[in-house]
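WARN no homologs supplied; continuing
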Amino acid sequence: MGGALTLAACALGLAVDAGSAFYGIPSSTFCNVENIKVPVQLHFGNKDMAKGFSDMEAANKLEDQLKRANVTYEFNRYENAGHAFTNKHSQAYDPEATALANARLVTFFKKYLAQ
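OK structure emitted
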């Protein structure tokens, strides 16, 4: 749910300078991608089976929408990761993908957030 909330906050123009969403896509009711004016970073597992929310089909559709809307974004896919791959309490927890995602997150925020 955090990824979906992040994208919705960015699209609703809330006071954010950048957003990083981990595996979640909100309904178009709450997130018109064309309204995103801040850089966003996205993280999805290629083995995510949450149909319509964070599976690869939904992720690919989201990336196409971001491209068409000219949003500044980084899209990261993790080959062997499923849904909730960064959650230590999830069966899908993937420490290698989590470490890579966290490193990418820090780099992204250093690039786009004021020091």
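The helical segments are 2-11, 56-68, 95-112.
OK
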